[in-house]
Amino acid sequence: MSKVQLKDDMPVPAAEQRDDIGRLVAVTWQGMDAGEATRSDRWLVAVDGSACSLRAVELVARMAAVEQGAGADLVHVHSWLNKEAAETELARRGWAATAPARQALNAAGVSWRLMSLMGEEAPEIVRLAQALGSRGIAIGSRGLTAAESVLLGSVAYKVVHLAQSSVLLVR
Question: How many separate domains does the chain show?
């Protein structure tokens, strides 16, 4: 990680990606020893700051600790922001929402990489898992009521149906 720091002790990202209008759409940080694990040894864990997503991180951390050299890729997906808001908010919100997840992985000695993306949650999570060649996707299931699921949909439900790899749902 870079020694240069941004506000709120957020390190400078290792990489950024922009769309065709120059809007920031993806930010990546390399965490503790992130380059050591091979792609097939890494789970992609969707993190939204909820207790369920933290339990998914903790489960992946326990599994990775058993396998020497395994790691985790964290992803936080934010809905669309305008160009100006994306410059400041995409990285800040992703870094803040994943603080407990990064702490849990560090405490377990598991290497991590963090990607904060902008877009529709389920398709972005599945697309990233495919692009990274992830072992699978771990995602928390908040347990929406039937009415909430009909009205709001469920990111976890959509990921299960879109993914071509394994999906680990954690309550």
Answer: 1
E-strand spans in the chain? 5-6, 10-11, 15-18, 24-30, 42-46, 71-78, 111-118, 136-140, 166-170
pLDDT in tens, 82-120: 899 999 899 999 999 999 999 999 999 999 999 999 999
Answer whether residue 155 is part of any domain: yes
> Rounded to two decimals, what is the model's pTM?
0.86
- Check which CATH number belongs to the domain holding 79 and give it: 3.40.50.620
Interval 123-148: pLDDT, tens: 999 999 999 999 999 999 875 555 55
Segments forming the whole domain that contains residue 139: 14-170
Would you say residue 85 lies in a domain? yes
Under 8 Å between Cβ of 138 and 54: no
